[in-house]
Amino acid sequence: MSVLQAGLRKAFNGRTVHPFTLEVEFSAPEGVTVIFGPSGSGKTTVLQCLAGLLKPDAGTIRVGGETWFDCGRKINLTPQQRRTGYVFQDLALFPHMTAAENIAFGVRESNENKRNRVRDILERFHVAHLAENRPDEISGGERQRVALARALVIQPQLLLLDEPFSALDDELKLAIIADLKRWLEENKVPVLLVTHDREEAGLMGGRMLLMKEGSVAPS
Question: Pseudo-torsion of CA 182, 184, 185, 191, nearest 10°?
Fold first, then answer.
């Protein structure tokens, strides 16, 4: 069983944001854990620390028994060393790359295996016909599917979703969530979904953590 265990502390002194201290301790089993809370409560900061994009001041991060960060032992794996799938709120697709190139970017395999993996995930998320299109040539929902496919193609040990459905209409949101849930049934990994939308949290199901002013506790 793959379990995320995290205890993190990160202080911001106010040079770029208001003075704020994130201090959390939680675990997340396989399946979806929703981090729910108002804007500015530290939800995205938690994801950035887990992904290695932001270094905590203290604490530990362990996934499936593997240590990704341990301040006391001076362990801090790079983002590339952490097999983390991350769907950013703004999707962060490379504008100069096609959908297929975006998805293939993080795959570290032979060319033939890479092509097969990209083709399979494009088909699974119903965007195979857009493989040669760039992000500005496809719709918002299609870009969302490509971003999700890019996060999943690497077979992540941990999946991080930062308000990924906030710009979608209800019908499209339900369709993409259904595809994602089917993938999760076959791939037993911890998933952290950040949202401030209770309806969206309910659609994804799973465990819920409430976050407020830098701390997190079961709701």
Answer: -140
Question: At which residue do the structure tokens 């202080």 appear?
Answer: 11
Please, which residues bridge with residue 12 across strands?
A: 20
Q: What is the pTM (predicted TM-score) of this model? A: 0.91
The beta strands (E) that lie in the chain are given as 4-12, 20-28, 31-36, 58-63, 66-70, 75-76, 84-87, 158-162, 190-195, 207-212, 215-218
Give the Cα-Cα-Cα angle 26, 32, 36 (nearest 5 degrees): 65
Q: Are strands 84-87 and 158-162 parallel, antiparallel or unpaired?
A: parallel
Q: Which of 69, 31, 52 is nearest to 186 (CA)?
A: 31
Tokens of 199: 């309806």
Residue 14 pLDDT class (50, 70, 90 cuts): low
Which residue ranges make up each domain of the chain? 92-155
Neighbouring-strand partners of residue 85: 159
